[in-house]
Specification:
alpha+beta, 12 strands, binds zinc ion
Length: 325
């Protein structure tokens, strides 16, 4: 039911809404992740409102990573399960919401990391650069991704084809946390004296479990990066348990081939928020990025940011979506 009070606000033009096409066009989402009435090719993203601000600004919420889950449904009510968005879609939504909230310009700070010649040898430039980034340029990089052969790994000896997908944001986050914990354990174990390691039953067990954890997380990242496998008969398998069983059965070389292709694919999907600029002091070229962090995007408004007055549609709608396989 439409609310006449909201119609007045809408008519005043002060509500900032931007419409975008999701970079993945929703291709990897099963039912229940996005509202079935929403169009992934034309999704409404709102400026951050008071509820989003009150619920996500809390430092504990921000630090816990819970902020994203609270924020996304507020800026994009069509997203029902934020943690299941792919990272690239999540990034596009955040940038659109930033434009809707604070306008096109965002100031990014970056200390120059270059070594420059000084009177007594080389020293760090360290100039605190303030870069005015046009967020409109950034969001244009998030047009629909092309489903090229980067998404496919051919395994001719089995007459099978593997179709890859970008990781879900929630999974990527969990894996990152696990990797950090495992790495910490690995570092501890690396410090252990070899004799102690080999003579202590506990240490051997710890070591073995650490190695196992690393193997499991590698395996999981492969499974989560596989959309489905097309069998020789033409049937498509996407069940994670069946894929796991299959990964254990194919040759090591083929697993390596899949891992390499996942790496190649991820390279094309990441880094779209990077910016290159010339240092104001030494003139050398540097690369940094627009941090897609709730605090930096929404709650820290540098003085150079213009008032919100933005185009209401940045949708790269001209391209037609490819149909699902
Ligand atoms: Zn410099």
């Amino acid at each position: 039911m439409s609310n006449p009070l909201l119609d007045d606000i809408q008519a005043s033009g002060t509500v900032e809404t931007i419409s975008i096409a999701l970079p993945t066009l929703g291709r990897f989402y099963e039912e229940g992740i996005i509202d079935e009435d929403a169009d992934p090719n034309d999704l409404q993203i709102n400026a951050i409102g008071i509820m989003a601000e009150l619920s996500t600004r809390d430092p504990f919420i921000l630090a816990s990573g819970k902020g994203m889950e609270l924020l996304i449904p507020q800026i994009c009510p069509s997203i029902l399960q934020p943690s299941r968005l792919t990272e690239i879609d999540l990034e596009a939504i955040l940038i659109a919401a930033r434009i809707a909230t604070h306008g096109n310009t965002m100031m990014v700070d970056h200390a120059c990391p270059q070594m420059v010649d000084g009177e007594d040898g080389k020293h760090l430039c360290g100039e605190e650069n303030k870069i005015d980034v046009n967020m409109y340029d950034i969001i244009m990089r998030y047009g629909p991704i092309e489903f090229s052969d980067k998404f496919v790994v051919d395994l001719p000896e089995y007459q099978q084809k593997v179709f890859l997908r970008p990781l879900e944001y929630g999974q990527a986050l969990t894996m990152l946390r696990d990797a950090l914990t495992t790495r910490k354990e690995t570092n501890e174990l690396d410090k252990t004296d070899v004799t102690e390691l080999l003579t202590s039953e506990n240490k051997i067990e710890e070591y073995a479990s650490n190695i196992m954890k690393q193997a499991v997380s590698t395996m999981e990242s492969i499974i989560h990066s596989i959309f489905y496998v097309e069998a020789g008969s033409g049937g498509k398998v996407s069940n994670p348990d069946q894929i796991k069983e299959w990964l254990m059965a194919i040759s090591k070389e083929n697993v390596k081939k899949i891992i390499e292709q996942i790496g190649e694919l991820n390279k094309t999907l990441t880094g779209k928020n990077s910016i290159t600029y010339q240092c104001a002091a030494c003139g050398k070229e540097n690369t940094t990025n627009v941090e897609l962090d709730i605090q930096k995007l929404f709650f820290f408004t540098p003085t150079s940011s213009k008032q919100p007055k933005t185009p209401t549609n940045t949708s790269p709608k001209k391209r037609t979506p490819k149909t699902k396989p």
